[in-house]
Amino acid sequence: MDVASTERVLVYDRIAANKRETWLLMGSFVVLAGGLAWLLTYAFLGGSIGILGIVGVAIIGYAAFSYFASTAIVLSISGAHEVTKEEEWEFVRRVENLCIGAGLPMPRTWVLEDSAPNAFATGRNPENAHVVVTRGLLDKLEPIELEGVIAHELSHIGNHDIRVMTIVTVLVGIVALISDVALRATFFGAGRRSGRRDSNGGAAQIVIILVAIVAAILAPLIAQIIKMAVSRKREYLADASGALLCRNPEALARALEKIAGDSEPLEAANKATVHMYFENPLREHSSALNGLFNSHPPAEDRIRILRAM
Fold it and tell me: In the annotation, is 153 catalytic?
């Protein structure tokens, strides 16, 4: 097997491993949300179908709104404007060429007028996708480096990462909503009423309620940690897929070095959208503890892996 074939196998191995790990984390999310819903319903709502139905309708409404409206909201918040090939020929042409290579429909292309170099993709599926780059990215990167970043963002689209992260974000919201309902129920005495209905099991009911309170407090934190872990895995996956698409891992690594080393903060970035960007735009410093809450892997780790491909 020649060197090129060996590199290709390593890239595919990384892609497969990241997909497995992502679905393992997603499974953990479902278990967490389902287990929390069952525990808190039993402890605080006493199996009340009426209250549970109201919560269920609220969850479905929240999920549907988030899924269908998130793209428009993100684009509006970013302040980006749509561009054509005539306006940004180099950018749009490279998007077109890479889409042909990836077998993807052409996304809509946008430029965010900010001097900090960065990019993101959004859209619930490849047919409704958008690629956004900053003016700083267009000005500060070499054309081959720009192509690497675009390949990374198109890989997010092709891997359905935007849909995955939208679902994960909805799940985080659902866990937070369930926890909030349960904690509010304690103040209205739902748990105490349930306990009076079963006087023989009063001690056990108190234990269940205490466990449920702890779960309601910790579950949103755990959900956020899982969300950030999924985000980091999808970044590694997009790096590997992007390197395969543009066939130049070194160009992608150099782009990441420049973007991570740029000192300018991105004005439009906020904690709600930070996971969408090519590199963390908030310039947060990582440590062993807060690394759990980082949406992106350390840039040096991503660069090292890219250069090992």
Answer: yes
Find where tokens 């599926």 sit.
Answer: 125
Q: Considering the entire predicted model, what is its pTM? A: 0.80
Helices (H) and strands (E) in the chain, counts: 10, 4
Q: What is the pLDDT of residues 241-298, one digit of tens each?
A: 999 999 999 999 999 999 999 988 898 888 778 889 999 888 665 555 667 888 899 9
Output the CA angle 223-235-135, nearest 5 degrees: 115
The label of the residue with tokens 């130049």 reads 248
Q: How far apart are alpha carbons 226 and 27 in whole angstroms?
A: 10
Q: What are phi and psi of 108, to 5 degrees?
A: -75, 145
Q: What are phi and psi of 121, to 5 degrees?
A: -120, 150
Range of the domain at 36: 3-307
Q: Out of 88, 145, 153, 279, pick the active-site residue.
A: 153
- Check residue 167 and give its pLDDT: 78
Dump pLDDT digits (tens) for 10-22. Answer: 556 666 766 676 6
Alpha-carbon gap, residue 55 to 189, rounded angstroms: 18
| Number of domains comprising the chain | 1
